[in-house]
Design a protein that fits this description.
Length: 250
């Protein structure tokens, strides 16, 4: 446990994710579990600053924006990634869901997530990560646990109201506009331009990247290392990095 007067080091976590991505949902749970463990149990002298970066995992020429035809997620993903990879994904999701006691599944509808990303950015502008993070988790819950269509304005408006982001009526007005649509497009394109083709990706302090749905144990080891760096001086790229953590120029 650090001395009471130890100053907190701010760790910036840039989380690049998409709401159609079940690995992103798992990764978000694991990351937040690690943060809570490091703060509440290990009492590391770290303050965590989270930033959400939208990413559209499935290209709009494959999954068109505002397409009125709802697609079954399991059928679509089986064709998109191939039956063998989809079966492996299903097995991994089922295993994680059983271990964590969460009803995570691939059932439901799949559509582009621009509206959900717009709402997440709006929450960040209105209240920072204290509003944005619970909203993001609620969207993932609606999509990956309840099988809801999070491209539907009515579904998102209910989530926004439940999370205290804005009233249901204000959320519907926002979602019917094009506010923050360009920002979602630009941020997603910028991530692709930097070489990101899959998510989740968590960029730490702009120096290191953790890719894929890593376990909370991986993040805990990383945060321990950052805490030690803070104690002994600034972190550099020298020395071995924990598993799952790579240097990045993203």
């Amino acid at each position: 446990m650090p001395p009471p007067d130890t100053p907190l080091k701010t760790v910036k976590l840039t989380v690049i994710t998409d709401f159609v991505c079940v690995s992103c949902c798992i990764g978000q749970h694991e990351l937040l579990d690690a943060i809570n463990y490091c703060k509440d149990t290990l009492d590391l002298p770290l303050n965590f600053e989270l930033e959400h970066i939208p990413f559209r995992l499935i290209n709009t020429n494959i999954l068109p924006e505002n397409c009125p035809n709802k697609r079954d997620r399991e059928v679509f993903l089986s064709k998109f990634v191939g039956k063998e990879r989809f079966s492996a994904l299903q097995a991994n999701v089922s295993k994680w869901a059983e271990e964590k006691g969460r009803p995570l599944s691939l059932h439901g509808t799949i559509r582009q997530t621009t509206k959900a990303h717009r709402l997440a950015l709006k929450a960040g502008k209105l209240g920072g990560q204290s509003l944005q993070t619970p909203l993001i988790m609620a969207i993932f819950t609606a999509s990956m646990e309840e099988g809801q269509d999070v491209a539907e304005p009515d579904v998102l408006a209910d989530i926004a109201a439940k999370c205290g982001v804005m009233s249901r009526e204000d959320a519907l007005t926002f979602l019917e506009s094009d506010e923050l649509a360009k920002e979602v497009e630009d941020m997603s394109n910028a991530a692709r331009a930097k070489g990101i083709t899959g998510v989740p990706v968590v960029v730490i302090d702009g120096k290191w990247a953790v890719t894929g749905g890593q376990s909370s144990e991986v993040y805990v080891q990383i945060f321990k290392k950052l805490s030690t760096c803070h104690s002994n001086g600034p972190c550099t790229s020298a020395g071995p990095l924990p598993p799952g953590m790579v240097e990045t120029c993203v």
